Amino acid sequence: MTFFRPPAPSASLDRKRVIHLVDDTTPGGVMRYLDFLKSDAALAEAAEHILRPVSRGEIGRLSLDAEVIVSHLSVNWRALPSLIALRARHASARMIHVEHSYTAAFTALNVPSRARFFTLLRSAYALFDKVVAVSAAQGEWLRARGLVPWDRLEIIRPAVDLSDFASLPAPRARPRVIGAFGRLDRQKGLDTLILAFRKIPGQDKTLRLYGAGADLAMLKSLAAGDARIEFPGHVAVPALAMAEVDVVAMPSRWEAYGIAALEARVAGRPLVATSIDGLRDHAGPGVTLVRPGAVDELSQALLENATSSQTSDERIALAALAETATRDGWRRLIMEGTCLTSARFAEAEIPSFARAAVN
Question: Whole-model pTM above 0.85?
Fold first, then answer.
């Protein structure tokens, strides 16, 4: 049950059926965000939010009974014909896509052919009535690159139930444990964090990397010989792990938003993060931003900026604002009544080969 409960909207509102499609159910921030949307009582007053895991092969064959269909799906060339079929089979439904993955930093580091990639995104996003960016930084990138028209772009920052984080005791006055949360893969920049931590003196310091992923063996190799670095694995209750740490590090190479950053701030933990993408949205008291890949700068920030002066009331207010902003954004989005017309679908910037695949 969420800790912050605004007044419920009028029960006389028509309650809509909203189906959220997801093709990656790996435990993490996105799934906890979807659980918040599905289980939040205030959101449920206006709409029934249903989570529908799908395999990538069945997307184009779905027949869904819903006024609103929300895609949390991967966007790539192989998936594009299925997204077109999904749109064609639900002509009267309002369709929304939430972009959890692609950002300016992702593109800079992973995309050799920008023109082709941007064509993919414009083609996919044209299928939806609205595209939701999960941070202001990501939204500005989508707008500046002309990937989504301004009138079809929304910015709704994700939230989870933050009550357990808001109620945590303050961290130790003399920080000892640095924690990082998330998948152990290249995106999270944990190799940089290990190198930075190894420059910090003191046997009383500990680095804990919570999570699982493909880079576990490589990261353990980087940490070899430093007994202060621990790998506790995936944690089922993130707030319990947050209670164990005094400082949170997020040295991501790209990050659309970063729910762990919000959780750290609500928990009163100092946050040291890279100044990229959606992590810039978290700038504020107790947050230090560093350049991505800058090992010495990250090491120094962990040493010098490991305190937060947030009061308990400030933490509660931050959590309340975050949860309320997410609720209000989704209420507004769901209650809008327009959907993509057949004429607009026909005019959408979709490559002919992809459109032919569903004819």
Answer: yes
